[in-house]
Design goal:
Elements: E1 14-25, E2 32-43, E3 47-51, H1 58-65, E4 73-78, E5 81-82, H2 88-98, E6 99-102, H3 114-125, H4 131-140, H5 156-168, E7 174-178, H6 186-203, E8 207-211, H7 214-217, E9 222-227, E10 230-236, H8 240-248
Parallel strand pairs: 3-8, 3-9, 6-7, 7-8
Antiparallel strand pairs: 1-2, 1-4, 4-5, 9-10
Helix pairs in contact: 3-5, 5-6
């Protein structure tokens, strides 16, 4: 089956864009082209997976979109703001206000309860706790009976759900999840991915997940496939056959 790139319709709210995004490492004969002129539009209110084999550039793309790494060329906009040219201080403030992160390692503070870990970003930024939002996030992620537990008293899947709740409680415009099920078994992975999807459906979040796992990408609304630093497909609600075909297709005409 032929895979084609689909751009979000103009009437759909846009969460982030990349235009001509390039990232190189090294010099002269040792240059590595991690991204090669990526053009991408990510719609708001949807669950998007960025897929590709190891070394394809998917994590580099996420880091540039999230303002964690500066592109060599091109432009990135998130929540209507151009990140290009922002200094480190401005980027730090922007991420704190607009972006949530979920990583493979849960990064929970072991001496804090689940509830305290969830509220930590608000405490650190001096923002008031929106109790209604907190209750909604806790309910969607199924954590109501775990809030008083320390991370060591939680399973891996529960710890990752706490990390997701921590990312959601600040109402970010965009949540980036980097291989969020990489440390989990298949049952816990399915549980976490189901809760990520619920956060999009029930809380109106925008989630962009980097993964190399076909089963994980199947939970997403949209799948961006990247090979050798270039986007080779942007699929809307693909089935398994379309995903497999897109992963096999290395580029136009190949």
């Amino acid at each position: 089956m032929t895979t084609t790139q689909h751009h979000a319709p103009s009437e759909v709210a846009i969460a982030a864009t990349a235009r001509g995004l390039a990232k190189t490492y090294g010099h002269d004969d040792h240059v590595v082209h991690a991204l090669r002129g990526v053009d991408l539009t990510l719609p708001a209110g949807r669950f998007t997976a960025i897929m590709g084999p190891s070394g394809s550039g998917k994590s580099t793309l996420m880091h540039c979109l999230a303002g964690l790494d500066a592109a060599t060329a091109g432009a990135v906009t998130v929540a209507g703001r151009d990140l290009t040219g922002m200094d480190d201080t401005a980027l730090t403030l922007f991420r704190r206000e607009h972006i949530g992160f979920v990583f493979q390692a849960f990064n929970l503070l072991p001496m804090l309860t689940a509830g305290q870990n969830i509220l930590l970003p608000l405490e650190l930024s001096g923002r008031p706790v929106d109790r209604a939002r907190y209750a909604d996030v806790v309910e969607v992620l199924g954590l109501a009976d775990r809030l008083g537990h320390l991370p060591s008293q939680l399973s891996g899947g529960q710890q990752q759900r706490v990390a997701i709740a921590r990312a959601l409680v600040t109402r970010p415009d965009l949540v980036f999840a980097d291989e969020p099920t990489g440390n989990l078994d298949s049952e816990a992975s399915a549980e976490v991915l189901g809760h990520l999807r619920r956060s999009v459906r029930e809380l109106g979040m925008t989630v962009v997940m980097v993964t190399h796992e076909l089963d994980a990408a199947a939970y997403a609304d949209d799948v961006v496939v990247i090979h050798d630093g270039a986007v080779t497909a942007h699929l809307v609600e693909p089935d398994q056959d379309q995903l497999v075909a897109a992963l096999r297709r290395r580029g136009p005409g190949r």
